[in-house]
Every structure is written in structure tokens, then in C-alpha cells.
Predict the structure.
Amino acid sequence: MVLEMKDLCVDFTGMRGKVRALRNVSLSIEKGEVLGVVGESGSGKSVTALSILGLLGSNATISNGEISYLGQNLLRLGPKEMQSLRGKKIGMVFQEPMTALHPTMKVGSQLAEVIKRHRGLSKKQAHKLAVEALKEVHIHDPELVAKKYPFELSGGMRQRIVIALAMSAPPDLLIADEPTTALDVTIQKEILQLIKELNDKRGTSVLLITHDLGVVSSVCDRVMVMYAGEVVEEGKTEEVLNAPSHPYTEALLHALPDLADPEEPLKAIPGEVPDLQNRPAGCAFASRCPKAMDICGVSVPALEPVSKNRSAACWLRRDTY
Amino acid sequence: MSTLIDFHSVDKSFYKGKESVKAVIGANLTVKKGSVVGLVGESGSGKSTLGKMLIGLEMPSEGSIQYAGAPLWKNKKFIRPRPGEIQSVFQDPQSSLDPRMRVKEIILEPLFALGTRERKEKGSRERLTSLMKRVGLKAEHLDRYPHEFSGGQRQRIAIARALITDPSFIVLDEPTSALDVSVQAQVLNLLKELKNERNLTYLFISHNMSVIRYMCDVIAVMYKGRIVESGPARKLFESPRHPYTKILLSSLPSIFEKKGPALSFAPPAEVDSGEEACGFFERCPFRMEACLKAPAFESITEEHGVACHLEG
């Protein structure tokens, strides 16, 4: 087990009081596994990633739960220890590659600096490895690209460089938060292939955060569906997408225009994601759920196994396994 | 169906000092009345520029655009057919709604282009409340500010603002790209219903092929400023002809099984292609010598056309 999170609760304190952004979120990633986290905006995907990285802002408190990374309890580590873990043991890739790169520093130097720091090499050795690293993310003519500034490169190239940076230590876990959302579909495909390739070749585990079920289906081994700060379903990607257990997953799949008949209206999910400030009692999805029962409005269902490889948090699925 | 809009070899160049960039090159496109025409392509391919020329925001450098038989641009001036006849909805409702205006003011603002009598008529209280209800909002929302709404609701406000003048044509530039899947479906449904109820014509710009397939009757695929293929939506999806369209379709990270073999870009060409070459030469997996001279856009059938030497 590379990463294990148990019953994590995260609260944010704002002007209007406390908001619970994560509610009892548990997840685990095995070595070499790609876990996808999907959900709509505000569902808690990014907060999950940030809490693993220890990058939650000062207005956030972790009020419950634990995160263990290779047996080490991350929540007990001090800021300095977290700093040495980030980038070295846990790589990060975010959505916007332009903001993740230093704008006035040549790409090669940025990479060399990271390599120098993590591996304690000389400048010359580091530079050589930097060019190697560029080659590994399939950049044509790495020598030339190493001498360029980020603004001279396309979005896809930049994201490749961010991935090269994240993988340079090399880490055991790569956290990628919407790594392809800012890119064109054709480039998105290339970047996803690259992440999958590095995962296969090096056995790096990946936590991939996305709002796109298509992305999940093309790279993830397992998927976790989040809604309003909770995990509502978790299981093998193929199984979850082919036969969803939670009504929310099902509704989300049906709302996609991918296979819809243009003559028929799309099966939209009525209403909107609840305001976390005024979270309804009971299941957070109940007000939009076509299968809601009396109990759903009163009591929150726990995430429990519904079949061999699958868990769901839904009253309908209780006692079926 | 009669022709509403006709692009005839439209070019658009942007200048910066002595340098120039051609954003749109020789675009020919016909939009029939009552249809939805989709524009797809990667960022920078010229989709939005094409749309902007229809609402008077960008002037074409060459060529002509006809709207209902009359030219839209004459002597570098935008000739508005009728105030409020053409409207637009943009991607980001956060930045396209004035944060200091109340919803009511936002929706009524386009009416200032109209005469006093018409303005009063179209901006009546009953009309406003029924329009709000129609787009899925409530009458009490009229006195609120944009920040009090979610992304989906803001896009509904933008749609209401576009509809207040009773337009016949709307440019929709990535109208659902900033929305979540569940909300996107609601907005797409609303746009489709409104189109049928009011006999509207849309130019629908999007980079999302699934959305385009669902919404559009006709699709035009753009690459580096050129329309490389256009045709009926179903035809284009079933039998794409241009290599770029094929790659675009095979790149879709669909949750469902894909048809046809996977196809990707070729590594950059070794030879310098020069100015004459096909715009896709650099990355085309099927490039050949003939492609050093750009292919003309030719019809395969009456509605389906492609610019590729392979289809000669």
C-alpha cells in the first residue's frame, strides 16, 4: 500500500462560519495503481489532493482521520518534513502548466535545479539528467527545448515538462490534479498516454483527479466518485462505468452527451449541488435523486461494500452484499 | 431551408507592427435558417474569430459575409441587420455579466439599442418574468447580483439577455465549457428547446466533439484558420474524410467503445514545408509530396466537403 487515507474530515473556516469540505473520506492506492477521483466542482477532489500534500491553507483544519504514506503518518509530520517529501516522494502535476513553471528560467535549468536538489548531484550531472528527463517525456530535440523559456512552448509541451519535473526525483506517488483540462483533446490524449506509460514503466502509483469520466475510463484502474465532500462510490473503473451502484454515478453517466440520441433531450440531473454551508440532513444527493426514499432525507448512508470490488454509500444498496 | 448566413472566402489577419498572423483563411460556410452549425477545432484554430465577425467584434480582412442576403460588413463598417437580430452567449458567465449590475438591468440592457416604443414593449414586466421562468430562473432573482448565482444559473441569465430582443440568430461560443456535466446537460436541453420554440439559428462553437455531435445539424472542422472539412453531423462522425477530423474523433476520451483504429499526429516533418503547403502538413500521418501545395476545398457530396489531396 502506497497511500492510505482513513475517515478524513476537513473543515474550512470562512466569514460565514465553518464549512465541512471533506466528510469521512477514505481511499487507498496500491503500488503501481492508477486511482481516479471524479466529481463536479466543489465535490472535494482537490481538497483531497491538497490534504495529502499538506498544502491546505491556514483556514483549513483536519478535524478527523489519518493519512499514511508508505507507513508514515503524514499528519504528524512538521512543515519541514512535509517540504522534503513534496516533489521528492510525492510528485505533483496541476492543471495550468504555465503557472507551475518559472516564467523567466530556462526549462532545462528548472529541471536541473530540481534534480540537483533531490539527488545531490553536481550542476553538470544534473543538466545531463535534465535532458534525459525531457527525452523520457517524448520531447523531440530535448537539447534545444532545454534552452527555451516556458512561454516559447505550447501547452502540451509545457505539461510534458511539468510531468518531467514531477517524475524527476523519482517519486512513488504522482498526484495529477486535472492535468489535461486546459489542453486540446488531441493533446490530452498524448499526455494521458504519457502518464500511463510512466506508470507502467516505473511502477509509480498515480492519483488522477478529473471531472471527465472519459479520462477516467482511458487511464484509471480504479475510480472513486465524490459528491459534496463525500465518496459515494468506489470500485474498478470498468465495473463502475458499466454498472454504476450509486444513483449519482448513474445520473452523471446519463447526463453525458457522448452517446445520446440527438433527437432526445439529455437526461440532465435536476437541481444543483447543495451548498455545503447548509448541507441537507441525510444523503447529500437525496434532493436530486430519482430513487430517493424516506430514509435518504433523514440519515446519511455510510460507504459500504456492495460487491467484491465495490463500495457505495446508498440506502438502496444496503444489505445487498 | 433558406440560407441565412453565407461566408464567402473570408480571411482575417491580425497585425502587430510588420508581422501578421492569418487567423482565418479562405473560409466558406453556409448557415441555413433554423439549423445549428457547429465549429470545432483546437485552440487558436480560428473558431471564435469566425464567430466574432458575425457580431461585429472583428472585421474580415478579405471576402464577404452575407446575412439574409445583405452584406454584414461594408466599407469597414458593421451593418447591423436589425438591432438585436444577432445575439451571442459566451463561455464564461463570470466575466460576461457585469458584477455591479442587477440581473434585471443585465437582461434589459440589449434593449437600449431599440427605439423607445419597442423597448417598452419588449421590456415589460410580464415579458421579463415569463422569460426568466422560461430559462429556469425565478422572478425574484431579478433584483439580485450575478455573484449570487451558480455557474449554470449565470449562463441562464446570459441566455435570457440574448433572448430579450427576439433575435433570429445566436452565436454560442463555448456556452457550456465552464459548466459541470450535470449542469451542462440542463443548459444544452434548454438551448435546444428554445431553438425549436423560437425557430432560432445557432452558430455553436465548441471544442467538445460529443457536445457538437449532440447539438448540431452541420459541423465545420477548423485547423489553423482553415475549414478543412464540413458536412452533416452524422456523416462527419460516421465517415470523417480529413485526417485531422479522424484524429480528433479518435482522441475523444469517450467512456464508450471507439470505432475505427486509433490515429495520432505524425512527428513533425523533417522538410520545411513552406508557405504553399497544406496547413496540416507538419503533423499529418498521411502527408505526401503533393501536400506541399495546399489542397482546395472540394465537395464530396452536395453537403459534405473536404480540403485534402487524399480525397481528390
User: Anything to note?
Assistant: Chain B has a mean pLDDT of 91. The first helix of chain B runs from residue 47 to 54. The radius of gyration of chain B is 21 Å. Residues 278 and 294 of chain B are 4 Å apart (CA to CA).
